[in-house]
Design goal:
The chain contains 3 helices and 24 strands. The chain is mostly beta strands. The chain has a 4-stranded antiparallel β-sheet with strand order 1-24-23-22, with no helix packed on it. A 4-stranded antiparallel β-sheet has the order 2-3-4-5, with no helix packed on it. A 4-stranded antiparallel β-sheet has the order 6-7-8-9, with no helix packed on it.
Length: 364
């Protein structure tokens, strides 16, 4: 009887329920779009990595080495804005509170910069999601092996560590990564990387990589958790990850239209289904900020609109606000990255529109 009761409790915690779209919500923010000045007076490339510096005011941003000038009409910047063929363009940038670029680095090291993260010591971590694809090989050649890595820098751009084998998709126990999406570093110094960007694709199978991998502070592999699927602790594109104030991993499980909360040893705690189709997640001041970049045109999520939703953490947390996309584009993604500064202003890193946006919190 006890076993049956325990099983019932577990089922009650992990079963999924249809959620009513959280669309018609107040928006107490004033949007400035585009915001920030691209380096050299040029144009941003596809941009989904944004993080607030530890000072609470300045930003770290990664874009895909400036906009590709020959983007075919109707094609997505996701496929054509990359650092392949742009060896002189640096994708990592620090911006001051007014949006001026203070420094840039990382030229020649990346193919598809995806997320940026600053740890408590001030180091900058940049995720390079993939290697050059077939189209880029034909056009630019293979060049120096790059991609499927996470690179740790100091604040002046010196490389301190590389996780993964540049240009090689593989298993972390063999020193490789496969389509890393995001990274977070725990107070202990342990490193957590989500892998498997292809998990949401129609061609995905149970063998498709979808996992969370754990490393020591010096980069030694500890364990991987999860697999492809929709059950507790399973993923379909774990697109972003952060830590809550209890030290739990909060994962934007995009292909499953949910946020999952896990312990650091990979045990499922709960899921939040009320925040749409999450590409990015940030926590600050007891609130959760979730970027839904794909509903309403990119991926099936009937009834939901894109934008950044703000509300309370937890499976029953109330969604309080929705910041709509500045540009209501169809067929391309908007804010995938989200960050919040010490003043409560929200920043969106937008892929399709190729811009950085700032949502200024109005006085209550």
């Amino acid at each position: 009887m006890r076993a049956l009761a325990a099983l019932t409790l577990v089922f009650a915690c992990v079963c999924t329920h249809a959620q009513s779209p959280a669309n018609d919500l107040p928006n107490p923010y004033r949007t400035v779009a585009p915001w920030g000045k691209p380096p050299g007076g040029g144009k941003w490339g596809a941009l989904n990595g944004v993080a607030v510096d530890n000072d609470g005011r300045s930003l770290w941003v990664v874009d895909r080495c400036g906009a590709s000038p020959d983007l075919p009409p109707g094609e997505s910047a996701v496929q054509y804005d990359t650092c392949a063929g742009k060896p002189g363009h640096a994708p990592v940038h620090k911006l001051d509170a007014e949006g001026n670029v203070l420094k840039s680095f990382g030229a020649g090291l990346f193919v598809f910069p995806h997320k940026v993260y600053q740890d408590r010591a001030g180091n900058i971590w940049v995720v390079d999601m993939r290697a050059v694809n077939a189209r880029e090989k034909i056009r630019f050649g293979d060049g120096t092996p790059r991609g499927h890595t996470v690179v740790k820098f100091d604040q002046d751009g010196k490389v301190l560590m590389t996780l993964g084998k540049p240009g090689v998709a593989g298993d972390p126990k063999d020193g490789a990564l496969t389509e890393p999406c995001s990274i977070v570093v725990a107070p202990s110094g342990e490193i957590f990387v989500t892998e498997g960007h292809s998990g949401q694709q129609p061609t995905a199978t149970p063998e498709t990589v979808a996992r969370l991998s754990r490393f020591s502070g010096d980069g030694k592999f500890i364990a991987s958790y999860g697999r492809w699927g929709s059950g507790p602790g399973e993923f379909k594109t774990p697109h972003d990850v952060t830590l809550d104030d209890k030290g739990r991993l909060v994962v934007a499980d995009r292909g499953n239209h949910r946020i999952q909360v896990l312990t650091q040893d990979g045990r499922f705690v709960e899921e939040w289904k009320q925040y749409g189709r999450p590409s990015g997640v940030a926590l600050r001041g007891g609130m959760v900020y979730v970027a839904d970049s794909e509903s309403n045109g990119v991926a099936p999520n009937p009834g939901w609109l894109r934008g950044i939703r703000v509300g309370e953490p937890g499976p029953a947390g109330k969604v309080l606000y929705r910041i709509p996309d500045p540009l209501e584009l169809k067929g391309t993604s908007a804010a995938e990255g989200v960050a919040v500064d010490a003043q409560g202003n929200v920043y969106g890193g937008e892929v399709g529109p190729r811009q950085l946006t700032k949502h200024i919190r109005n006085n209550p």
